[in-house]
Amino acid sequence: MVMAGACLLTTGCASKKELENCQNENKQLTADFQNTKEQLAASNSRVTSLEEQLAQAKSENARLQRSLDKSLGIASQNNVSIEKLVDQINESNQYIRHLVEVKSKSDSLNMVLTNNLTRSLSKEELKEVDVQVLKGVVYISLADNMLYKSGSYEINDRAQETLSKIAKIIMDYNDYDVLIEGNTDDVPISKTNIRNNWDLSCLRASSVVQELQNRYGVDPKRLTAGGRGEYNPIATNTTDAGKQRNRRTQIIITPKLDQFMDLIDKAPEE
Q1: How many whole angstroms from its chain centre is CA 3?
Q2: Which regions of the chain are under pLDDT 50?
Q3: Strands 223-227 and 248-255, sheet pairing
Q4: CA 223 to CA 243: how far, in whole Å?
Q5: Which residues 6+ apart lie within 8 Å of 232 measured at CB?
Q6: How far apart are CA 213 and CA 218, in angstroms?
Q7: DSSP alpha helices (H): ranges in the chain?
Q8: pLDDT of residue 235
Q9: CB count, 10 Å around CB of 223?
Q10: Cβ contacts of residue 181 below 8 Å, gap of 6+?
Q11: With contact defined as beta carbons under 8 Å apart, do 215 and 207 qualify?
């Protein structure tokens, strides 16, 4: 009887250890799966950005071909000299190369900026922060429940660590302007000091701007606060999940407008 009891005890211990091993292995597999999903999402975002850039390049190439055909037709009709036409084409090509160099530099900086930001965010933060590059502009979308106190435009303590990382990126890339854009769902706000969702979205954007300026030292001349109320949804407002996605604040980082104006001034005359 003693021997039988010892065997059962030994078997029970072995089973418990195997169960613990299985549980640990399951936790590791779950963590690996989540990490793979996050990497896939980041890769898909980069692929989308590159596809858009390719489509823009094809469109520009088609436009240039039409312009060249038109120039050749005008030259033939008006007996313009081949030498003058070649000079015009060369000037145009030089400007196009300049545009391509500027765009390439901008795209490279945007990708570096995005990679630096996503690497600085923790896995938990990445669940509530979406970073994308679309048509040369960096969009950082933050869920309202990670930024503000419930039903309020006051920044909560939980947001500080994430905002500090975003502020560092903004400070590192001082050739970019920053637009803070508030968005809400379509549920009317019921606060005595807030008239409607227009007010709420603008106040929330203003809170983030002032936090970046006052707490983290971002130059206010680079910052713009704006609200779009409930009128810029990215999901349906008929479900709780859709409403949650629509309640967001976007930090939009773009090259400064005067850089584009300089390019326009340098454009060759047709």
Answers
A1: 67
A2: 2-6, 8-9, 260-270
A3: unpaired
A4: 27
A5: 181, 183
A6: 5
A7: 2-78, 82-120, 123-126, 144-147, 160-172, 197-214, 240-246, 257-265
A8: 94
A9: 20
A10: 201, 205, 226, 227, 228, 232, 249, 250, 251, 252
A11: no
